């Protein structure tokens, strides 16, 4: 895990990871640091402690809901986010409903992601 606290913690179902990773990369290009498990937790790390720290230290918690629903770890992250958001006015929670579809044009693969946001 990096030394600087992240701007946004990105909670997602593992099936949505490729789309969420592209969103995280776009956010970073805009100057926002993101906590994405794939980027912040290395094999052998204390993954649960790192997730808790990422949730606790982030200014924004973004919860992605994709076509496969919510995963078991994602549910725990969402519950923790709501507890954190309820105790602190410094934490903002946003949820995004993503419907990601892969299309295969004749020569290349493209992915379209449609998101609708709500904030708390």
Structural descriptors:
120 residues, Rossmann fold, disordered C terminus, 4 helices, alpha/beta, single chain, 5-stranded mixed sheet
Provide a compact summary of the structure.
By secondary structure, this protein is an alpha/beta fold. Helix content is 37%, strand content 28%.
Describe the structure.
There is one protein chain. The chain is of the alpha/beta class and about 120 residues long. The protein has a single domain (about 10-120), classed as Toll/interleukin-1 receptor homology (TIR) domain (Rossmann fold, 3-Layer(aba) Sandwich). The chain has helices at about 15-30, 35-40, 45-55, 70-85; strands spanning about 10, 35, 60-65, 90-105, 110-120. Strands 2-1-3-4-5 form a five-stranded mixed sheet. It is globular and about 35 Å long. The model is unreliable at about 100-120 (pLDDT under 50).
